[in-house]
Design goal:
The protein is α/β, with parallel strands linked by helices. It is about 25% helix and about 20% strand. The strands form three sheets. The protein has an eight-stranded parallel beta sheet. Strand 7, helix 7 and strand 8 form a beta-alpha-beta unit.
Amino acid sequence: MTVKTAPARHVSSIPAAPVPVAVHAAAGGLDRRERRPERGRAGFERPTLVIDLDAVAANVRTIAGRTSAQVMAVVKADAFGHGMVDVARAALAAGASWLGVTDVAEGLELRSPAEGPGIGAPILAWLHPSGIDVAGAARGRIDIAVSSPDELLEVIAETLRMPRRAGGRPIHVHLNVDTGMARGGAARGDWPALMALAARHARAGDIVVAGLMGHLPDADLGDPVRNAAGLRLLDEAEGLARAAGLSVPLSHIAATAATLTDPASHRQLVRIGAGLVGIDPSGTTPLREASRLTAPVVHSSRVPAGTAIGYGGVHVTPDATNLAVLGVGYADGIPRAIAPDASVAIDGERFRVVGRVSMDQVVVDTRDRRFARGAIATVWGPTGAAAPTVRDWARWAGTIPHEIVTGVGPRVRRETA
């Protein structure tokens, strides 16, 4: 088991007392082995996100079994908050052959991670929030997507300024076309110019056109009919590419939902991101949730009926009850706006979150049970256990599971199982 720890805020010169090994049982294989939890200065286990890499591997195998296309594991946003390098390795070992990232910097991190050997699998970077690092892409042998003739011209100009020996190969580009989202990708009117420019510089050896890509706006609905227009646009782009003299080895448009529900979208490559960590946006396929978030009880009290809780006193206890305060809040990824039935599990039993979520704490009504400081609450975990799931939290917050898992903050310790 690998433990990754965020920098501590305080350092104590007093050695911590030995602590017993803690054993947590949960469905889905998390914490199968004993572990000695990292403790704070008062002996509490820190808020911890336990990541199940076996679940990641199982999800890759499940999804790969639905297609004959190559599988790209999309590990952007730190693999949806689950740890980019570890998830990438698990996905590749389970059968993925490509990796997808936000930008070249993430790709370079995969090539030369802080721990362990570099990853040599093909990598595509396509969102480029800070522009395209062409030199880094050449150095790291990272494919890049371009979304307009202007962007391709900038890449070519930068390429021509570099010594040809940089990276040992021409830049590999994927032509990203807008297939219905208007959120990126070349606009339909720019396709002829984009294809002609790419073909001219591919013939000159300045670039290699390695792929053509698009995005499907309604794939999460799980209805292939809703994908038809986007697929027709991709077909049209492929025809224009061929007419310009391009031979495009990879065409790709399907993400997790389309891969699971629409075989016509698969083409030569499918891009799996949310599915890696157990999220099927279409809701059609059981996948294994790949994380469990826990937090300690840092304070408990018995309060009378009529006690107002938290900022604004939006919850008032109807009866005398016990309260447990957990050391995790919206700075750690707990949504501030949640439904009244939001809950956590402590000692195998569900308890409601009451009052407003604070930056560093939430309050739980534990009814007739009084929990000691240091008791561990499970905020979310795999389906089948007492704890709620990521999907439950998304429903309570009125959002999607992707936002919940990517919102876990840096104060939360990460651990792989």
